[in-house]
Amino acid sequence: MFSSARALVAPGNVLRYEGSGSLVCCFSATIQFALLASTPILQKLTDMMKKVLISTLVLLCAFYGLWQLSSARSFQLFGELVQRVDTDEKVIALTFDDGPSKRYTAEIVALLQQQQVKATFFVTGKEAEQNPGEVRQLYQAGHQLGNHSFSHPRMLFMSPAAIADEVERTDAAIRAAGYQGEILFRPPYGKKFVMLPWYLAQHKRLTIMWDLEPETDPKLANDARAMADYVINNTRPGSIVLLHLMYQSRQSSREALPLIIQGLKRQGYRFVTVSELLAMRAER
């Protein structure tokens, strides 16, 4: 029937097939009909894609906001957080996270003793259990000990039972080494969200953060002089400085420590433990 048909394109985009049977197809009308028929479908797909895109953006923004909240140095949802103390006195608290390690504890204690400086060490329970002699070196030299969790996890979505285990096992390890002073708490990585602050608030414990952390800047982390200059130039009365000294990878931080101490002493600063700093706040 169609073997002898001729295709002619006529004005108006009308495609006619002429031959036996005289079949005529109105191409433009067919296309218009198809477009009209598909418009509601396309509109629905477009609306659906918009909703998916908006929902994705909202979720990403919410996730980013929660991540920022979990890392905030000066705010948490429950309890009290301290990143520095408002005081007119030129005092500063040096704080060191992790450890104690067999390799570096004695070296750090000797350096601080030579400089006649007291500091606060936030130790992990696991390392305190492994190195009780080094724990004793720290507090016998007059330094304060703090709790930095047992296994150093990100304590964002842990259950109350898991949080209690991390905190209380570390307290027990510190006490087992003979320490009798106040044990403050600092969350690993500075991360906290809902359950950790709630647990600390229920047990009337502060969250100790910091306002100076030179190691997080890649431009400073491998340069002892640059780290020291940053701390010296940005310290305020009541500042809390965070450093990590206990591992081999932290050589630049260990080299920066005496430079920091000497530079701040020249500016008239006095070094205290975190508990001593908090006591000054209470006196105001």
Fold and architecture overview:
Helix content is 47%, strand content 14%. The protein is α/β, with parallel strands linked by helices. Strands 4, 5, 6, 7, 9 and 10 form a 6-stranded parallel beta sheet that branches. α2 runs parallel beside α8. It starts with 5 loop residues before the first strand and ends with a helix.
Q: Mean pLDDT, nearest integer?
A: 86
Number of helices: 9
> What's the total number of strands?
10
Globally, the shape reads: globular
How would a textbook summarize the main sheet?
6 strands, parallel
Q: Which structural category do the helix and sheet elements fall into?
A: alpha/beta
Order of helices and strands: EEHEEHEHHEHEHEHEHEH
Instruction: Report how far the terminal alpha carbons are from each other.
Output: 103 Å
Tell me roughly what share of residues is in helical segments. 40-55%
Computed over alpha carbons, the radius of gyration is 33 Å
- What low-confidence regions span 5 or more consecutive residues with pLDDT below 50? 1-26
Strand content: 5-15%
